[in-house]
Amino acid sequence: METTLNTNRPMSFQKNKGSQGFICFICFCSKQAHSLGKRLVQHGHTAERFFQINFCQSEKFKLTITNNKHKMATGIRWGILGTGRIAHDFVTAISVVPQIQIAAVGSRNESSAQHFAQRHNIPRYYASYEQLVQDSSVDIIYVASPNTFHKEHALLALNHNKAVLCEKTFTINAAEAEQVVDLATRKNLFLMEANWMPFWPLFIKMRQVISEGLIGEVEFLQANLGFKNNHELNPGLLDPKVGGGALLACGIYPVTLASFLFGDTPTSVTAQAKLNENTGIDETVSIILKYGDKKMASLSTSISNFLDSGATIYGTKGSIRMDQMHCCPTKLTVYVDGEEPIVYEEPLPTKAPDAVFNFPNSEGLVYEALHVMELVTQAKVESDVMPHSKTVANMRTMDTIRQQIGLELPTH
After folding, report:
1. 339-371: buried (b, 16+ CB within 10 Å) or exposed (e) per residue?
2. Is 50 exceeded by the pLDDT of residue 199?
3. What are phi and psi of 317, to 5 degrees?
4. Dihedral angle computed from the Cα positions of residues 159, 162, 166 and 172, in that order, rounded to the nearest 10 degrees
5. What is the Cα–Cα distance from 171 to 193, expressed in whole angstroms?
């Protein structure tokens, strides 16, 4: 029997028919947990276990997600660098937040910029990225260009004193990532990789369950992420000139998940791949990461096959299953040895009635945007959730994987 919780409702609980106890979800603080626990007992209910979710490292973000009250400065203005599919999804996702202002968009050609601006009601558009970063009304640049141009465009924005949120995969390699981080550090400007995964409420819940020791010491991770790309409609994923391939498109997520569980630097990396016979790009990659003698991650990624894109985390006392896609989880099941499974479910954030997305669960891009907005408002230059060190370390792991599968990508 499973107990299901809907984490979208603060201070709420659910009980399945036939269950002898309650599993309780508490949203804000331990004081509330204690108060609600008393009320449950007073009403004749037995609380089996209490959980507390911290949606981020601050009350502000927790309030943002649970109550949809965005307590942040309204003077932070975004500039969108790029007009591709992920840029569309990002702007569409954050458009539901009244306090988020998108000031301008830039593209390599005027017609693309104009069309994007009209579609998303953006007041200014530019026919070059240089013009965009020169706009004095823009505070932060969202870099959504192809992978091979991330370093160039992030440096461009930083050199014009703009804060930067740069799409994953952050750069082509660790050397490029270090260049970007170094400039941001020297100029004391905010910089973060737009890896949305660690900002999802159930990803945060997963980390809390582990930190509380419910499944014991984590020893093994099995995680996949893959889909069957239409190579004719989306040829860019096979093009090395724009940083195509499964590893950069999807593989960064299981690699990042492993880093959250075991640390940023594996002691050994083993990888094999199926390469495209025409372009040499990686279509499917299988990876084994070891962390000392006892901990290991088995990872797979693909752009030519639909994989079971969930993840299972195995501990000495139980396991955690992240269903569907572990990079944007909406369901989490906790299995503790000898106890009933506990299921957490989190509905997707609100979207505009006419919103259309290119990628699954893109509504959740708002999580990372709100995190960035809060940090920029507080004059922070680095995220404590997705810090520079993790981004660079993950790129080093990706470099090792590419070396082992014989893949080289051009740099700019």
Report:
1. ebebbbbbeebebeeeeebeebbbbbbbbbbbb
2. yes
3. -120, 0
4. 0
5. 9
Q: Give the mean pLDDT of 204-231.
A: 96
Q: Which of 49, 381, 52, 2 is nearest to 207 (CA)?
A: 52
Question: Other CB atoms closer than 10 Å to residue 10's CB: what's the count?
Answer: 16
Phi, psi of 295 (to 5 degrees): -120, 140
- How sure is the predictor about 217, in pLDDT bands with cuts at 50, 70 and 90? very high
Of 129, 156, 161, 95, residue with least CA distance to 381: 161
Question: What is the overall mean pLDDT for the chain?
Answer: 85
The span from the CA of 312 to the CA of 117, in Å, is 41
* pLDDT digits 0-9 by tens, 293-335: 999 999 999 999 999 999 999 999 999 999 989 999 999 999 9
The whole-model pTM stands at 0.84
**Residue from 303, 308, 270, 265 nearest 286 by CA:** 270
Helix 174-187 crosses helix 388-405 at what angle (to 10 degrees)?
Answer: 160
d(CA 365, CA 118): 21
Whether residue 94 contacts residue 366, with contact meaning beta carbons closer than 8 Å, is answered with yes
With 0-12 / 13-18 / 19 or more C-beta atoms within 10 angstroms meaning exposed / middle / buried, residue 217 is exposed
- Unique residue bearing structure tokens 């996949």: 224
Residue of 11, 49, 9, 15 whose CA lies nearest to 29: 11
Sorting pLDDT into bands at 50, 70 and 90, what band is 23? very low
Q: Do 13 and 25 form a contact (C-beta atoms < 8 A)?
A: yes
Please give the DSSP secondary-structure letter assigned to residue 349: P
pLDDT band for 408, please (50, 70, 90 cuts): confident
Residues 6+ apart with CB under 8 A from 212: none
Report whether the peptide linkage leading into residue 169 is cis, meaning its omega lies within 30 degrees of zero. Answer: yes
Pull the structure tokens for residue 180: 């970007």
